[in-house]
Design a protein that fits this description.
393 residues; alpha+beta; Aminopeptidase; 2 domains; two-stranded antiparallel ribbon; 11 helices; FemAB-like; Acyl_CoA_acyltransferase; GNAT family N-acetyltransferase
């Protein structure tokens, strides 16, 4: 460790984009949400800022002039935009006259997508980065550290460092049709996907799609640089409207999405629903790519200016799934929460976060809570597994 140096920087502009992205490229599944350009857009657009309760602190590990490991960390004064809920922990601190905020979060703001959070050249560097994070939290007198939606390698390093683990459930679709000899391959088309489902689920999906078609709604999609600025504008109108309908201002600004269009267009796929030649809804999908190949699709944002029965299901699930099948994408991740996704063949998967609390008494209490919660998650997963939408056998 003597030849390693830890540096904490408050701005990504103090780091080399190529060095950051080189760390990400070495991960098993490079996430578009951990790219330098994505994180920079969050901050430079003002979407994630100290004013909105996200104070960035990038923890970096150096050996000589070489960047060996790095992660985005945030000093938080609230728990909004995280999607791993710790409000009860904050309330318990308050009831005992203790301050839960500020705390530290290693995450991608507003993005509950599993993936690498601790970018590192090798496992040793990742372990040292976790140790540096805990030491930094102690130095800053922060109540706690929370690494959210980590990759397996992150969780292994956190476990080795003694952090507590917490599981939540998401719903993901896999492009895997059973083969004749037991092997799997991608579905041939949407009909072959439907054929893998039970009769009731297949019938329900066809009914939902028919309702949208009979309402006169058609879809078009565009990707990357082919997404017109007018479509980005209409998308943002829909996106902002969805948030405001739920009584909240949108997390992300129009400037953020413009930066996405300018700096990493290949990572975005936009579906536009139209009726009588006018756009009425949009669904924005993020893509993890290898060259021109789309590996994983992530359902991110949607919105509509007109109400059509079942339009949400068509825009957010059926159109993206059909695209994934046609383009060979391996997986579609539908985002946080929502058991209704199982009826569309998005199956439950566990996601994991890691937690460290400075207060020994509260750390013990949270550890006991997580044991009980973990048992509940296992039972929940078993219950969901009994409700598979696929044909038996």
């Amino acid at each position: 460790m003597n030849d390693y140096v830890i540096r904490v920087v408050a701005s990504l502009s103090d780091l080399d984009p190529k060095a950051w992205n080189a760390l990400l490229a070495g991960e098993a599944q490079p996430s578009p949400f951990m790219r330098y350009e994505y994180l920079a857009a969050l901050h430079d657009s003002g979407s994630a800022s100290p004013e909105s309760g996200w104070m960035p602190q990038f923890i970096t590990l150096w050996r000589g002039e070489q960047l060996r490991a790095a992660c985005p960390a945030y000093i938080k004064t609230h728990s909004y935009g995280e999607y791993v809920f710790d409000w009860a922990w904050a309330n318990a601190y308050e009831q005992h006259g203790l301050a839960y905020y500020p705390k530290a979060v290693v995450a991608v703001p507003f993005t509950p997508v599993p993936g690498a959070r601790l970018l590192a050249r090798d496992p040793q560097d990742r372990t040292l980065l976790v140790q540096a994070l805990v030491a930094w939290c102690k130095k800053e007198e922060l109540s706690s550290l929370h690494l959210l939606f980590g990759a397996d390698a992150d969780i292994a390093a956190c476990t080795e460092a003694g952090l507590m683990l917490r599981n939540t459930v998401q719903f993901h679709w896999t492009n895997a049709a059973p083969g004749e000899s037991g092997e799997t391959a991608g579905y041939v088309d949407f009909e072959s996907f439907l054929a893998s489902l039970s009769h009731d689920k297949r019938k329900k999906i066809r009914q939902e799609r028919r309702k949208v078609a009979e309402a006169g709604v058609t879809f078009r999609w565009s990707r990357g640089a082919d997404i017109a600025r007018s479509d980005w504008d209409f998308f943002y109108r829909c996106y902002a409207r969805t948030y405001r309908e739920h009584g909240n201002p949108p997390y992300l600004s129009r400037d953020f999405f413009q930066r996405m269009a300018d700096t990493m267009p290949e990572a975005w796929l936009l579906f536009v629903a139209e009726r009588e030649g006018k756009p009425i809804a949009t669904s924005l999908i993020a893509l993890s790519t290898h060259g021109d190949e789309a590996l994983v699709a992530y359902g991110r944002y949607w919105g509509a200016v007109e109400r059509v029965d079942c339009l949400h299901f068509e825009a957010c699930y059926y159109q993206p799934l059909a695209w994934c099948i046609a383009h060979g994408a391996r997986r579609f991740e539908g985002g946080a929460q929502g058991e209704h996704k199982m009826a569309r063949a998005l199956m439950p998967v566990k996601t994991t976060s890691a937690h460290w609390l400075a207060h020994p008494g509260f750390a013990d209490a949270v550890e006991r809570f997580l044991e009980r919660e973990g048992e509940g998650i296992e039972n929940y997963m078993d219950h969901l597994g009994e409700r598979s939408p696929f044909k038996a056998g």
